[in-house]
Amino acid sequence: MKAAVTPTGPYTASASPTGTATTTATTAGHPRGTVESYFNALKAGNVDQIVGAFARNAVVEIDGEATAEGTKAIRSLYQQQLHGATDLLSATHTIVDVRTVSGENAVVRSGSKQGQARFRELFLLGKEGGKWKISEFMNNQSS
What per-residue string of b and e applies to 20-38 under the rule 16 or more CB within 10 Å gives b? Predict the structure, then answer.
């Protein structure tokens, strides 16, 4: 039997720039809030907060980088990514779509601009300890 995919209320298909946004009470506790927190931590260069957005056994696949699996590898990847990366700190992000699957999993699509480069992102989230965490993240440069 196929799992039903249901949009999550006001978050679905509403493009929303998160370049300067902070997580609000409206999005806190929702998949969108987790992704917004991730983007805010990325812009702040805060590796601890970035890693905290991910599940313990998460997988991160960033365009042009080796796949990072688990907390230690993800921490190392983002330390390398943020080292001297002014484009990441000044990037703009737009959440394009948020959907939940059976209330326990979610998919978030977004787009980012880092300097002159544009990226597409796909986040898979699940609940860990009752909180939404990123279980898989992949991005690639759009043409």
Answer: eeebeeebeebbbbbbbbb
The dihedral over CA atoms of 41, 45, 46, 52, expressed in degrees to the nearest 10, equals 50
Instruction: Give the predicted TM-score (pTM) of the model.
Output: 0.81
CB 125 within 8 A of CB 95: no
- Using CA atoms, how far apart are residues 41 and 51, in angstroms rounded to an integer? 9
Contacts of 100 (CB under 8 A, 6+ apart): 5, 6, 7, 8, 31, 106
- Report d(CA 51, CA 58) in Å as an integer: 10
Read off the pLDDT of residues 66-112 as tens digits, 9 standing for 90 and up.
999 999 999 999 999 888 777 777 889 999 999 999 889 999 999 99
